[in-house]
User: Which sequence fits this backbone?
C-alpha cells in the first residue's frame, strides 16, 4: 500500500460512513413501517407476508451497523497513519495535504485547493504546485515505511480484502 492510498481513503471515509448511515436510517424507517401479522379469531395469521421479514431486516441492520463501526475504526487508523506520513514532508506541504485529505468543515465537507489557498493566503496555482510536490514526495516512500504507520489489524484486513478480490 502506498501513502497516497492512505490519504485518499481519509478523504473518502466521510462519504463511506455517510452512505452507511443513510442505509441504516432507511432500514430503520422500513422496520418502523412493518406491521406485525394480525391473528384471526381462529388463532391463525391473517397476514400473508413473510413471517421472518423483521428478523432478516434486524440482521441486515446489524450488519450495516457493524460495517459502519468497522469503517470508523479504519478511518481512525488511516488518519493516524496520514499524520505520521505527513510528518515526513516539509511543514507547508504537510499542512496542505492534511487540509485537503483529512480536514473537513463542520458540515463534513472537504476543503478544495481554492479554500485552502484563501485560508493560507496563497494563490490557488501555488497551492496546487505545493500539493503536487508533496504528493510526489509521499509517493516515493516505500511500501514498508507506509505499512509501518498502520496497525497490524488494518494490514491483516487489507490483505484479506485483496485475497477476496482475487478469488
Assistant:
Amino acid at each position: 500500500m502506498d501513502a497516497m492510498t492512505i490519504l485518499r481513503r481519509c478523504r473518502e471515509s466521510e462519504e463511506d460512513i455517510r452512505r452507511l448511515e443513510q442505509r441504516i436510517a432507511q432500514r430503520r424507517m422500513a422496520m418502523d413501517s412493518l406491521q406485525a401479522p394480525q391473528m384471526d379469531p381462529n388463532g391463525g395469521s391473517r397476514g400473508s407476508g413473510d413471517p421472518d421479514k423483521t428478523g432478516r431486516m434486524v440482521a441486515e441492520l446489524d450488519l450495516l451497523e457493524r460495517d459502519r463501526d468497522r469503517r470508523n475504526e479504519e478511518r481512525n487508523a488511516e488518519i493516524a497513519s496520514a499524520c505520521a506520513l505527513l510528518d515526513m514532508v516539509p511543514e507547508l506541504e504537510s499542512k496542505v495535504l492534511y487540509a485537503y485529505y483529512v480536514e473537513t468543515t463542520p458540515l463534513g465537507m472537504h476543503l478544495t485547493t481554492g479554500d485552502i489557498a484563501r485560508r493560507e493566503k496563497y494563490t490557488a496555482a501555488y497551492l496546487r504546485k505545493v500539493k503536487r510536490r508533496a504528493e510526489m514526495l509521499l509517493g516515493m516512500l516505500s511500501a514498508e515505511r507506509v505499512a509501518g504507520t498502520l496497525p497490524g489489524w488494518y494490514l491483516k484486513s487489507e490483505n484479506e480484502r485483496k485475497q477476496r478480490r482475487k478469488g
In short: Residues 80 and 138 are 15 Å apart (CA to CA). The chain has one domain: 3-33+53-145. The mean pLDDT is 89. The chain is about 70% helix and 0% strand.
